[in-house]
Amino acid sequence: MEAILRSIRQDLQDSADEQTKATSHRFFKEEVLVYGVKSAVVIKIARRHWKEISYLDKNEIFALCEDLLSSGYCEETFVVSDWLPNLADQFVEQDIFQFRTWIEQYIDNWAKCDSFCNHTVGNLVMKFPRSIEELKNWAQTSQRWLKRAAAVTLIIPAKRGAFLQQVFEIATILLCDPDDMVQKGYGWMLKEASRLHQAEVFQFVVEHKREMPRTALRYAIELMPDEMRKTAMARDW
Fold first, then answer.
1. Residue 46 has pLDDT above 60, yes or no
2. Of all helices (H) and strands (E), which one includes residue 219?
3. Which of 68, 141, 203, 226 has the greatest number of beta carbons closer than 10 A?
């Protein structure tokens, strides 16, 4: 296990460059820990090493993932985010609580949150729809990345037209949250839901636009026709 971790970290170090490292910092308000490896290269490294560990049992892979997550490096989290969807057929409903713990302990920026939640947690929720009740709990915490996770976990299902009612329920819980990372997260979720449920999302936005922060509103209506966007953005109070 330690040899695998050393090999991954050596590959990341060998693939780093200062320009990528400098550029990475521009995308975040908070300090981030990065090697400076381009995303496409991280994915190649992750998939090369997946071939070495895919024979391990789920608990052993989870342990490797936690070691990577705990390092704090963005690229190591991205390796985890590429690996875990491969285990989706082995997920059990209780894994949602392990994922919550990892988010609480190790996720500290939007890129880690989104890469981890879009597919890993999203796959679990699609397999076990009852887990959305736990996402609602996340939305009601004081932890910004859990709140964003509650929304961005539903990005892929929402894009496919699934869980519309639950999308609205989570958006309602997060509606007036003052954190722009949370606003952008649930606004993005609504935007993806609008691909197949434009009228319903438009109605939700119009009904809540007095309370909805403009950041979230702009995200939610991004894919809508001009007239819909104008109506949603119009200040009628």
1. yes
2. helix 214-220
3. 68
Residue 237 has pLDDT above 60, yes or no: no
State the virtual CA torsion across 164, 170, 176, 181 in degrees, nearest 10.
Answer: -100
Helix then strand count (H, E) for the chain reads 16, 0
**Amino acid identity, residue 180?**
D
Q: CA-CA distances (angstroms) from residue 186 to 12, 80, 172, 210?
A: 32, 24, 9, 16
What one-character DSSP code corresponds to residue 33?
A: B
Q: Report residue 209 as tokens.
A: 């636009």
Largest CA distance in the chain: 63
Q: How far is CA 208 from each of CA 173, 198, 217, rounded to the nearest angstrom?
A: 12, 15, 9
Q: Rounded to the nearest 5°, which phi and psi values hold at 33?
A: -105, 115
What's the pTM value of the predicted model, to 2 decimals? 0.95
Which tens digits make up the pLDDT trace of 131-189?
A: 999 999 999 999 999 999 999 999 999 999 999 999 999 999 999 999 999 999 999 99
Burial class (CB in 10 A: 0-12, 13-18, 19+), 1: exposed
Tokens for 51, please give them.
């071939």
Q: Position of tokens 């991205």?
A: 78
Please count the residues of the chain.
237
